[in-house]
Amino acid sequence: MNIDLKRIALLPPDLQLKILSLGSETPEDGIVQDISTRNTGSIECNAHIAAILQNLGTQGYYVIDDFLSQEVASEALQHMKAFNAREELHTAGMGAASGHWKDESIRGDKIKWLTDVDKDVMGPLSVPLGCMKSILGSLQKRIRPRSEFFTKAIQIAHYGPNGAQYSQHSDVSPLIPTRRLTFILYLRETPHVSNPSGHLRLQTLAGTSVDIEPKMNRMVIFRSHLLHQVLPSYFDRYAMTLWAHNRDTMDSRDFLQAAHVPSIFVSVPAYRDPDTNKTIVNLFDTATYPERIKIGVLYQDAEIEPWKHSEIPSKYQNYIKSLHWSNEDAKGPFIARAVILEQLYSKEDYYMQIDSHMRFAQGWDEELLHNLSRCHDPHKSILSTYPPTIIHDTLIPIPGPVLLYPTHFDSDGMLRIKGTSVTASESPRSHMFAAAGFLFSSGKLVFDLPYDKNLECLFFGEETLLSLNIWMKGWSIYSPWCASGYGTTCWHKWDRSYRRTLWQDFGNSESMMKKRSDSQQKVQDYVQQLKYQNGNHNERTLSSFEKAAGVYFEERRVVFKVSDIQLQPDAAGKITENAQ
Predict the structure, then answer these.
(1) Closest by CA position to 395, among listed 482, 286, 493, 312
(2) Residue 537 has pLDDT above 80, yes or no
(3) What pLDDT, in 10s, does the model give residues 153-175?
(4) Which residues contact 364 (CB under 8 A, 6 or more apart)?
(5) 254/357 Cα distance (integer angstroms)
(6) Domains of the chain, with CATH numbers?
């Protein structure tokens, strides 16, 4: 029996309900169950989720073979067969309550309703149910509808070998309007058959029909509103069905937008650092979507080191691009970052630069994106701060976001910067300085970064140059803050005793001292030039930066007081706002 929705719409409402209730029988006691949104964080799992979303948006369905291990699938099948042997399955009907009716010529399966509250009754079926809910939880995180998915009872169904079928219908009806996704796990012992037998015939979003064989251990996920039917079955066919409900309607755009996970390029300059690969692995291990992470690392090691870099798991290696220099060719972190950008960056959606000795909070990628979305203008905002320290591999929580502020000019004329923790607020806190060792923003920032390969051996001065340049280009800087957990997305090993630095190896050489001095002079010359670049492709002025930051470069004078941001929670934001 085919359903002509246009003709049904011409019938009286009570008759419409009667016909549309063909959708499926509903359990008398539907128990709403929570959906776990825990994401495994594995690249393999998330690749599946992206494919599911893409296909749900384009075709309306997705098929996963070998969904469970053979042992688990076999145990689940035997459990279903035991229900049938004990005659615990009843002839299925259509509709609910007073609208409930039966006709085996339309629907010939036998069913049983279960909830995962009935642990003893569920038995081995708890495992496939948990796997279904894990997928649904991952979909929930990607789709982010206004309300959350929920499930009711699980249906166990058996189609006998006597030609049992289910005529064309939709799982959504006026009686059951909230079904959004249908999950069906097929279990059977009969081998592959050439002619359709018990196949699921599904009308796709493209308007075509597809016949899906109910193979053993095959999972099918489809949009619940799609018309479908079960063709006559000539073998024992078992299935476990879970429906995902949502009070919000969803269209293909919701699924297609969720299928795209924006990429993040991470710049990692590393000088003789045995912690480099541990940092890289930790980046992947703690990301919600590790497949989005693209690493660009520049190793600068001695020919013979007393240690070896730790191994990077093979599953991450395709997401890493690397360059290798001798430490004798190193020219400082500023040049290293410039080279990484020039040779390894591939126009990823977001850009992050870090140091090679850091650790990250679970879900740092989603947390940073969430922080960025809450900034006044996310498309022109940067998240940057001095991360808290790691002490003996212990991750230290922070009480509030860390804002950077100027302290003084050193003997070389370089502005020195510190950080202080301040009271958290609902919106990200703004400040005037960027930290070179931790910075996150849109990939568009790359085109406004000041990295110049002529500034060799520059260390102090890099953050001044960085902060000034992005200010002049119209960017605003914010300190990230996580209300839950540790309060931070990352930590930094500030203790350098375990590794060699460029300055320890070559800092006293006449050549390096001259290069550093020349680069620092170029920074000061650049600051002087900014005085005469009002307009000239810049959105702000040097004087507005000086006023907002409380620092005057020509006089080498700092008037900013840290108490200003400690006593006034929004002081930094107000200063920035007034100066623009």
Answers:
(1) 493
(2) no
(3) 899 999 999 999 999 999 999 88
(4) 286, 287, 489, 490
(5) 38
(6) 5-258 (2.60.120.620), 261-523 (3.90.550.10)
Residue 513: its H or E element: helix 510-530
pLDDT in tens, 480-491: 998 778 999 999
In the numeric block, the tokens 């990628």 are attached to: 365
Average pLDDT over residues 36-40: 39
Contact 438, 354 (CB under 8 A): yes
Does position 574 have pLDDT exceeding 50, yes or no? no
DSSP 191-240: ---SS-SS-EEEE-TTS-EEEE---TTEEEEEETTS-EEEEEESS-EEEE
Half-sphere exposure of 81 (CA within 13 A, CB side): 12
Closest to 462 in 3D by CA, of 492, 443, 435, 441: 435
**From the DSSP assignment, how many helices (H) and strands (E) are in the chain?**
17, 28
Say if CB 142 and CB 57 are below 8 A apart: no
Q: Which amino acid is at 399?
A: P
Task: Return the SS3 of 69.
Answer: coil
- Average pLDDT on 440-458 reads 89
DSSP state of 544: H
List all residues 6 or more positions away from 352 whose beta carbon is below 8 Å from its beta carbon.
264, 265, 266, 267, 368, 438, 439, 440, 441
3-state secondary structure of 438: strand
Closest CA to 217 of 182, 181, 189: 189
Report angle CA 279, 501, 408 to the nearest 5 degrees: 100
Query: What span, in angstroms and rounded, lies between the C-alpha atoms of 466 and 450?
Result: 6
- State the Cα–Cα distance between residues 364 and 4, nearest whole angstrom: 50
